[in-house]
Amino acid sequence: MMKMRRFGAKGPEVSALGIGAMSFSDFYGPTSEANSHAILDAAIEAGVTHVDTANIYGMGRSEEAIGQFLKVRGAGTRERFHIATKASITKDDDGNRCFRNDLEHLEAELDQSLARMGIEQVDLFYIHRRDPNVPIEEVAGNLSRLKEKGKIGGIGFSEIAPSSLRKAATECHVDAVQSEYSLSTRAPELGLLQACEELGTAFVAFSPVGRSFLTDDPIPLERVEDLPFLKVNPRFQEPNYSANIKATEGFRALAAEVGVPAAGLAIAWTLAKGEHVISIPGTRSVAHFAELVKGAERVLSGDEMAAIEAVLPVGWAYGDRYSADQWVGPERYC
Fold this sequence. Notes:
Blueprint: E1 4-6, E2 13-15, E3 18-20, H1 33-46, E4 50-52, H2 61-73, E5 82-87, E6 89-91, E7 97-99, H3 103-117, E8 124-127, H4 136-148, E9 155-158, H5 162-169, E10 176-180, H6 192-199, E11 202-206, H7 221-224, H8 228-231, H9 240-247, H10 249-258, H11 262-271, E12 277-280, H12 286-297, H13 302-311
Parallel strand pairs: 3-4, 4-5, 5-8, 8-9, 9-10, 10-11, 11-12
Antiparallel strand pairs: 1-2, 6-7
Helix pairs in contact: 1-12, 2-3, 4-5, 5-6, 10-13, 11-12
């Protein structure tokens, strides 16, 4: 049975497992609206209620797929899901990537997101990336204005440091912080998980299966060149790629011994790290989605947690999680 968790101290109850809807665009390979709808149908069947998207995923394509699903499936479908989206990543007048956290930009982007999904309110709205030139307290205030207008139900930030969360929380309650977290990326344990728990903020873990390394079927090296994000990512470049495949062999063997798909075991481990943790893997496969669900339903014993962390101890991964360009925006912290 699907675990349910409170989405922060002041939020609704949602499934511990969510859907990272970046996969509803072609980020990890070609997909289709029909395929995305099949995953959403499987989510309803499994009791998965949280869907996490963003305006830049496929330049609106992910949101459009969700909107069409809600429209086609009809009455009552919207109420089955807790929907989150994000904004702030954009381009300046010269076409260069930049971040905007001002109210005018956020509201304009949010209005477009709501239109694409055919809804009047999104349950959670994140600042996708911070503009370092704007105090985060001011940004939190901008999000509060959108909440007062009834356009968003909750306030969130993506990839911020614990210190930034604490500053934002002086302005308003922050419902969620999203960051990469898995057995291969443990940085949130250096204060962010703890700050979220202390402040009653949900911690939303994206890429919980290590961008495929923590699965039974990692993305093959020959496919990496076709994926713009991964082909420049240090962990997917040689010799790191082969080293990471070899390092995770023991994890796949342990998953087989435990009787859980490797991806499912990675999800189970992530959810065991705190009752305030929500895990949002992405997938283009209904079969893979079923593996993720199995993991969310699994409760690991202390011995199993110790065995997992013995085969993949802190710091095992080869290569940084982002390239220098990919690090522009996310906040580093210690």
